Amino acid sequence: MSEQKDVNYKRHTARYRARRRAADIMYEAENRDVDPVAIIEDRVSLARDHDNGVAPVAEYTQIIVKGAAEELDVIDETIERYLSADWELHRIPAVDRAIMRVAVWEILFNEDVPNATALVEGVELASEYSNDQAPPYIHAVLDDVIQAQSADNPMSVAAEEASAQDFEDEFDSQD
Known about the structure:
- This protein has 175 residues and is mostly helical.
- It has helices at residues 14-32, 36-47, 59-70, 72-81, 94-109, 115-129, 134-149, 157-173.
- It holds the Pfam family NusB.
- Residues 152-175 are annotated as: Disordered.
- One of its GO terms (molecular function) is RNA binding.
């Protein structure tokens, strides 16, 4: 990832550090064209031997990476849906893709994490690791993903499914 800025990492929670490491692993996997789950498995194995100097991999880091790897197509489609018309996912810096993938996985697939937390910490990761333009557009994309999840949003998946079911019910009642 890009040059680190001066940050007091001690103030960050264990979950934040797990997110940061998950983004690091997602970034590394994409750059090396390797399965991120394989990287996790290697790191867990290497961490067992203290002579290797590899830090243990937090359980939450493993959960994020495995979950994001399993749902990568859905996550990428979701991110692409909310990018501006001028941008495509492959044109965004790899570090920003990794950060958004972690945050979008939490928003879509981890009910234990409040959406606001996933958004704020995703933006904070972007502030630490990316350029000055990244935090605002990552914030916008993540906010759009969250807004689309809202049941009262007419563009949400739940609303679309309910509308489709209403149409089917109405069509069936006409028979």
